[in-house]
């Protein structure tokens, strides 16, 4: 729950920032010189890129949470079986072992979004965020395909 509050607070701050940057871009365009118009247009592009990124990130998180809810209802969420250090960090060898099992599960059922979801969690636990995101995106796509 804390993560959601932080996410929405940061998203709100970003939206305010986008409005402020956008207003500066409009002010530059209103100056009417070639250079200020060019800068104004360049400045206006930034909020649009940021808004697109915020939208895609929010959609990804919402879709991943929806899959987690489905898995939880089915009783298929991965069990936290990781060994942790005294400080609470995940032990690397433990994460690698769980990852190998999840990878074998996914290789055995490459069309199952559930195995891809669990693989994404294993990637995340192994601190491989780019692959975790790709695996989750694949799980989301497979789930969407199976739902239609």
Explain what the structure shows:
Keywords: Membrane, Transmembrane, Transmembrane helix. This is Tetratricopeptide repeat protein. The chain crosses the membrane at residues 7-29, 35-55. The chain is mostly helical. The chain folds into 2 domains: 2-57; 92-147, Alpha Horseshoe (Serine Threonine Protein Phosphatase 5, Tetratricopeptide repeat), CATH 1.25.40. The protein contains 5 helices and no strands. α1 (2-31) runs antiparallel to α2 (34-74) and α4 (113-125) packs antiparallel against α5. It is elongated.
Properties at a glance:
single chain; 148 residues; mainly alpha; Serine Threonine Protein Phosphatase 5, Tetratricopeptide repeat; 2 domains; 81% helix; 0% strand; transmembrane
Question: In a nutshell, what does this entry contain?
Answer:
By secondary structure, the protein is mainly alpha-helical. The protein is 81% helix and 0% strand. The chain has helices at 2-31, 34-74, 92-108, 113-125, 129-147.
Given as residue ranges, the uncertain stretches (5+ residues, pLDDT < 50) are none
Determine Rg (CA atoms, Å).
21 Å
| Biggest sheet statistics | none
Order of helices and strands: HHHHH
Total number of beta strands = 0
User: How helical, in percent, are the residues?
Assistant: over 70%
Structural category = mainly alpha
Instruction: Please indicate the percent range of residues in DSSP E strands (runs of 2 or more).
Output: under 5%
Number of helices: 5
**Tally of distinct domains:** 2
Keywords: Membrane, Transmembrane, Transmembrane helix
Protein name: Tetratricopeptide repeat protein
Transmembrane segments: 7-29, 35-55
């Amino acid at each position: 729950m804390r993560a959601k509050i932080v996410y929405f607070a940061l998203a709100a701050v970003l939206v305010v920032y986008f409005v402020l940057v956008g207003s500066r871009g409009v002010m530059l365009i209103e100056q009417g010189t070639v250079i200020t118009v060019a800068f104004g247009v360049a400045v206006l592009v930034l909020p649009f890129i940021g808004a697109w990124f915020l939208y895609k990130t929010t959609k990804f998180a919402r879709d991943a949470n929806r899959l987690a809810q489905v898995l939880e209802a089915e009783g298929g969420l991965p069990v936290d079986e990781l060994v942790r250090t005294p400080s609470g960090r995940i032990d690397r060898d433990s994460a690698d072992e769980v990852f190998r099992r999840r990878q074998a599960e996914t290789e055995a059922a490459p069309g199952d979004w559930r195995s891809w979801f669990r693989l994404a969690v294993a990637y995340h636990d192994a601190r491989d965020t780019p692959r975790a995101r790709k695996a989750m995106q694949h799980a989301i796509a497979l789930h969407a395909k199976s739902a239609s």
